[in-house]
Design a protein that fits this description.
about 190 residues, binds benzoic acid, PRX_1cys, alpha/beta, about 35% helix
Length: about 190
């Protein structure tokens, strides 16, 4: 609780900022609970996560008790990631996280379910924007991180539905006469 300096908090980690329409709503609660369960997976990938919801800090604090209960954790467990207060949707509007088709009771557009991935150089690497009515697949977000981290290290690209350990492709930009040098363990050539 208190102010957060985003770059300082991120340090040398990757970051995921994910937004929510509002506190105490059922879909959001399932998502935040899922993120709680996936914390060891995010840690393995050197990723810090931070949520945002357009309610107050005191509302977030009360909501965290619900989320822990839904996730099957005891109430004395420390909630493992911060949730940003965005009561007036200033951040959501600034960062393009608003779903203009979903309105709250007062007719104000809801914050959508955005996922922004930031790398350790503080570079914005990927965005996903789901409508408020569609909960996210956080396993897909881990898969995305695996692809981003792998393709940062090696001159490869990952195909449809790839997951860590599956085959990937040599980048089309790698000259053919460099392939053996860059991939000394060899590559498979498929003829279609
Ligand atoms: C929910 O989290 O359950 C929700 C929030 C806004 C619109 C629809 C569903």
């Amino acid at each position: 609780e208190g102010e957060i300096d985003f770059h300082g908090w991120l340090g040398d980690s990757w970051g995921i900022l994910f937004s929510h329409p509002s506190d105490f709503t059922p879909v959001c609660t399932t998502e935040l609970a899922k993120v709680m369960h996936l914390m060891p997976e995010f840690a393995k990938r050197n990723v810090k996560v931070i949520g945002l919801s357009c309610d107050s800090v005191s509302s977030h604090v009360e909501w965290c008790a619900d989320i822990k209960s839904y996730a099957g954790f005891s109430d004395d467990k420390v909630f493992p990631y911060p949730i940003i207060e965005d009561k007036n949707r200033i951040i959501a509007n600034k960062l393009g996280m608003v779903d203009k088709d979903e309105l709250d009771a007062a007719g104000i557009p809801l914050t959508a379910r955005a996922v922004y991935v930031i790398d350790p150089n503080k570079k914005f690497r990927l965005s996903l924007l789901y409508p408020a009515t569609t909960g996210r697949n956080f396993d897909e977000i881990l898969r995305i991180l695996d692809s981003l981290q792998l393709t940062d290290k090696a001159k490869v690209a990952t195909p449809a539905n790839w997951k860590m350990g599956d085959d990937c492709m040599v980048l089309p930009t790698v000259p053919e006469d460099q392939v053996a040098k860059i991939f000394p363990q060899g590559v498979n050539v498929l003829t279609l």
